[in-house]
Amino acid sequence: MPRSRRDAFDARLSRAARALVHAIPALLALVLALVARHAVVEPADIAHACDPAPWAGWCAGRTLLVYSFATQGIGWLALAAGTLATLLRRRRTAQLALVAGTAGLVLYSFEPSAFGALLGLMVLVRVPPPPASLPGRGQPTQAAT
Fold first, then answer.
1. 84 partner at 20 to 30 Å CA-CA among 74, 96, 120, 131?
2. d(Cα 69, Cα 94) in Å, to the nearest integer?
3. What is the pTM of this model?
């Protein structure tokens, strides 16, 4: 493979690797939210067991989870993080918006979660990588002697 083709292939591969790294936390949040929804929130047996004492034992965790999406807390977190990431162009804040938005979409907080996840995703797509990860960048230049 000629040198320029290899460099282009490496650049595409590094973009794909970066995209995968950004997708892993969102996919993990999706899986955990699906498990929480289908194993903890929706089963009628668990709901009936927690009705008499919603704050006793492990029912307290379920009650907090139900309150978090009853007030759309996860969605508002995603929207706030997405807005902050858009204003400051911060990757970590954008990643938080994407993760919280993904979980919020599964846990009944559709509107603010969708907007927050989209804002975070737009920042992740637009923010350039750090200079050290670009080919030929971040390396000290030597003066010609």
1. 131
2. 21
3. 0.73
Q: Which residues contact 126 (CB under 8 A, 6 or more apart)?
A: 89
Amino acid at 55: W
Q: Are 82 and 115 in contact (CB under 8 A)?
A: yes
For residue range 1-19, what is the model confidence (pLDDT) as tens digits? 556 665 665 566 677 777 7
Give every CB contact of residue 80 below 8 A, 6+ residues apart in sequence: 116
For 11, the token pair is: 């650049």
Q: Is 56 helix (H, G, I), strand (E, B) or coil?
A: coil
Q: Compute the distance between CA of residue 82 and CA of residue 112 in angstroms, rounded to an integer.
A: 10
Q: Name the maximum alpha-carbon separation found in the chain.
A: 82
Structure tokens at 84: 């902050």
Can you tell me whether residue 109 is helix, strand or coil? coil
How far is the C-alpha of 129 from the C-alpha of 145, rounded, in Å? 32
Rounded to whole angstroms, how far apart are CA atoms 83 and 85?
5
Helix axes 110-126, 73-88, angle to 10 degrees: 30
What does the block give as tokens for 40? 């903890």
